[in-house]
Design brief:
Blueprint (H helix, E strand, L loop, with lengths): L1 H43 L5 E6 L14 E6 L19 E3 L14 E3 L6 E7 L12 E7 L10 E16 L5 E9 L1 H12 L3 E6 L3
Antiparallel strand pairs: 1-2, 3-4, 5-8, 6-7, 6-9, 7-8
Amino acid sequence: MSIFVRKRRRSVQLNNRWGSRRNRILFAISLTLIAIASWLFSVNTEVKLEQYLVATTNLSSATPIGISNLISTPMDLGDAQSQYLKASGENLSKWVLVRPVNAGELIPLSAIAPSNTADCTQIVVALAVSMANTVKVGDSIDLWAADQSSSIESIPVQVVTAGELISSKLANDSFGQSAQTVEVCVSPAEIRSVVSAIARKATVVGIRSQN
């Protein structure tokens, strides 16, 4: 009887040792899995840096954008990333500065403009008559203005010659009639005429330029 008891006690001790060892192994494996999961999480949540363009020297207005005066730098701008020029590999030569940028500064998108519009000013004009459907963005258009007068004959005057059509918006007014608003790039000399026509509430009509 005593021999049977001793064997049973030894079997229980061995089982306890095995259970303790097994628990240690499982605990070690759990720690390893937790460490791997933490590493994978940190890799997946790592901030991805974007390449932005920074001025290498002081740049004045009307300076063409190019690799000679800019350098690509990795940065994390967070919510402001859409406000600055990225080094996306697009053709930079079509852009020019419209205001100065100091050395070491990022290039704000608000500080650049297409080179073909840098020498003109964009202005929005409401047209009395919608232009033809064949006129599209990028075309050159002429704007004519005539005073709205029933007692005095008004002679139309050309206020814009070969202005580039930047955008066009067609909407219905409160009377259900279509009204077209265009954004046109006009020369500095034409701004006064256009603003004067708008102030007089003149009838403005746009046509495709023949120039």
